[in-house]
């Protein structure tokens, strides 16, 4: 029976110590959870910012590719326009050269002849034929 009896002061001191240990453990646990939560939020923030940077880098790359393709398209259109202009210039030069050489090789103009009427086959002055 003497094992069941405890002095009240020692019991209160034991319970107070037990309560203090529980409070300290709970405080340590809450501090651990707070640090863990803050670390989790920090990691999430870093991951979010890294993702935002990756998205920004991706969009910058897309913008650069779009600018490059627009420049390439503009250069191709410019080159096609230059080739078309060169082709049309060569075509115009060939046409004008053909006109020039056709006029150069043409036979000399002769006075016209009457083909009908009393003076058929005879030549006459151009002003006379203009009146007919």
UniProtKB/TrEMBL annotation:
Keywords: Membrane, Transmembrane, Transmembrane helix. It comes from the Bacteria. The chain crosses the membrane at residues 12-42, 54-76, 83-104. The keyword Transmembrane helix applies. The keyword Transmembrane applies. This is Uncharacterized protein. The lineage of its organism: Bacteria, Bacillati, Actinomycetota, Actinomycetes, Mycobacteriales.
């Amino acid at each position: 029976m003497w094992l069941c009896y405890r002095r009240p002061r020692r019991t209160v001191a034991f319970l107070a110590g037990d309560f203090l240990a529980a409070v300290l453990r709970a405080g340590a646990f809450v501090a651990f959870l707070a640090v863990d939560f803050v670390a989790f939020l920090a990691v999430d923030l870093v991951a979010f910012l890294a993702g935002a940077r990756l998205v920004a880098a991706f969009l910058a790359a897309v913008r650069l590719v779009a600018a490059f393709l627009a420049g390439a398209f503009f250069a191709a259109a410019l080159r096609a326009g230059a080739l078309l202009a060169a082709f049309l210039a060569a075509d115009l030069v060939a046409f004008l050269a053909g006109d020039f050489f056709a006029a150069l090789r043409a036979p000399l103009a002769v006075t016209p002849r009457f083909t009908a009427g009393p003076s058929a086959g005879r030549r006459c002055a151009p002003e006379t034929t203009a009146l007919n």
